[in-house]
Design a protein that fits this description.
Length: 376
């Protein structure tokens, strides 16, 4: 058991390769050939994009890979600053008109700006085939420096900023994922043969309730424990400081709303209009996060959260000023991990079996020894 809960708040990776070698499955064989895997990847991508847009009334749009530093629209992922973006200088015109740029870590804030620029009305939204680089991850079986997500955002009204609306949207996303699994199994029947399917029902649970159930466990171990009872859960309220003095995770302060007071289904006072979908991965025998999402901050909650995190200087950025000035629409949005989802649905043991990126030599050799062949 990890005694210091603080160590479990930010970095999502396993931590070292000695531990990873023990975790990777011992008797793994891919259910799909390399050629079948590629066909299945694009079958899943096309199905998910089409049905996500249908269920949430979204349209596919282009998305940046690099952004201007001065815009403030890049995503810092966690409030502690432990994961920083790649930044570089574009000298342009012999340095007369230079640009300092960053590779995106996610399109979270950019999407909300895009809603306004595209004239999206409440009930309308966008979806992107987003690519990013997160250089500070530990590269293990389900974390890579290369990130691909279906980053989506939808304009909402003020009266939709509530838990019932959040749960309704989460339910629609869950339906798309469950339907995609069936669709893939119709195309590739061998995917039915060895592992259980996703449950039809997604269980909703507040982070505070989860802490009450497992008060001595850090958050990853709490998630692992609850997934033994409920193999698919949506944890609500990620970012608010819980009863033990720690948030469930160090969620950034300037996109998801994790401060708004709410009430649980049992009538308990809670906080937060955001959360994560996690499932039990039967191949890796580990917790497996698929998506992080939430109702976004308004002018009031943005200021509250930045005050809590000591980041009020962010209010000088154009993006943050636009929220304060009501120049951006109220919205709900999230990012669904593409490779994470494909890894799960195609019954793969490693992220590198469904996405091409860089891995250290030690990991590639470890995987090959266990009959796991990462793409290069």
């Amino acid at each position: 058991m990890i005694v210091d809960k603080r160590a479990d708040l930010a970095g999502p990776g396993i931590g070292d390769y000695e531990e990873l070698e023990k975790i990777l499955p011992q008797d793994y064989t891919s259910l799909l050939t390399p050629k079948e895997t590629q066909k299945a990847i694009f079958a899943a991508k096309n199905y998910i994009e089409a049905n996500l847009c249908k269920e949430l009334n979204l349209m596919m749009v282009t998305v940046p890979l690099i952004v201007d530093v001065e815009s403030g629209v890049n995503d810092y992922l966690d409030r502690d600053g432990s994961r920083t973006p790649i930044q570089f200088h574009i000298s342009n015109d012999r340095n007369l008109h230079p640009i300092d740029a960053q590779v995106v870590q996610a399109a979270t804030k950019w999407k909300r700006v895009a809603l306004e620029r595209l004239g999206m009305q409440p009930g309308e939204g966008l979806c992107t085939d987003m690519r990013a680089v997160r250089k500070d991850y530990f590269l293990d079986h389900d974390h890579s420096a290369y990130v691909d997500q279906w980053d989506w955002e939808r304009a909402i009204t003020a009266d939709q900023r509530n838990l019932d609306f959040l749960k309704d949207i989460v339910g629609k996303i869950w339906k798309v994922l469950v339907d995609t699994e069936r669709y893939l199994q119709d195309q590739f029947p061998q995917l039915k043969t060895k592992y259980p399917n996703l449950p039809e029902k997604l269980t909703f649970m507040h982070a505070e309730d989860l802490l009450d159930m497992y008060p001595d466990l850090p958050r990853k171990q709490r998630e692992t424990a609850i997934l033994q009872q409920y193999p698919a859960i949506f944890i609500i309220g990620i970012g608010w400081t819980l009863g033990d003095g720690y948030p469930h995770e160090m969620r950034a302060a300037d996109y998801d709303d994790w401060v708004t007071p709410t009430v649980s289904s049992q009538g308990r006072p809670m906080h937060g209009l955001n959360g994560d979908i996690l499932v039990w991965n039967h191949v890796t025998q580990r917790r497996h996060e698929l998506t992080s999402m939430g109702i976004r901050v308004n002018d009031k909650t943005l200021r509250q959260q930045l005050e809590i995190t000591g980041q009020l200087d962010f209010l000088n950025y154009p993006y943050h000023r636009a929220i304060l000035n009501h120049d951006l629409p109220l919205s709900i949005g999230g990012g669904i991990g593409q490779s994470r989802t494909l890894m799960l649905l195609l019954r793969k043991a490693h992220l590198g079996e469904v996405s091409v990126t860089v891995w250290p030599k030690i990991l590639k050799e470890m995987c090959a020894h266990k009959n796991i062949h990462v793409l290069e």
